[in-house]
Amino acid sequence: MSDAIHQVTIRGRVQGVGYRYWVEQQARARGLEGWVRNRRDGSVEALFAGPPDLVSRMIALCRRGPASARVDAVEEEPANADALRLRRPGERFSVLPTI
Predict the structure, then answer these.
(1) Buried-state track 70-90, b at ≥16 Cβ within 10 A, e below 16
(2) Confidence of residue 2 (pLDDT cuts 50, 70, 90)
(3) Chain centroid, CA 1 distance in Å
(4) What is the DSSP track for 8-52?
(5) How many structural domains compose the chain?
(6) Pairwise CA distance, residues 51 & 70, whole Å
(7) Is residue 67 situated within a structural domain?
(8) Which of 4, 41, 80, 86 has the most CB atoms lying inside 10 A of its own CB?
(9) Of 37, 38, 87, 92, which is the active-site residue?
């Protein structure tokens, strides 16, 4: 089965509460590829690539987030492999600068 690639945008109280670090740890623990970053509008954006069941579970986890966060909405859409190019060279999962 081929890998799934999904991009998500998480809205709520998700900046300043360790959300990016939490996403990075959860994604790495599951062996997923991708990236996470803050956006200037206060949301967090992430890309997850890997086996479809693991990507789906990761997105479900994002709907809850870490204990200090309050997730109001998660928007999800399929993405393509080109989006993985945003990662830092040599990293499977990257924390990217805010855009």
Answers:
(1) ebeebebeebeeeebeebeee
(2) low
(3) 22
(4) EEEEEE-SSSSHHHHHHHHHHHTT-EEEEEE-TTS-EEEEEEE-H
(5) 1
(6) 27
(7) yes
(8) 4
(9) 38
Q: Which of 11, 13, 20, 57 is catalytic?
A: 20
The CATH number for 73's domain is: 3.30.70.100
Q: Is 80 a catalytic residue?
A: no
**77 forms bridges with which residues in the sheet?**
7
Q: Is 13 a catalytic residue?
A: no
Mean pLDDT computed over 33-61: 98
- Is residue 47, in this structure, part of any structural domain at all? yes
What is the span of the domain harbouring residue 32? 4-85
| Any domain includes 29 | yes
Give domain status of residue 98, yes or no.
Answer: no
Amino acid identity, position 58 = M
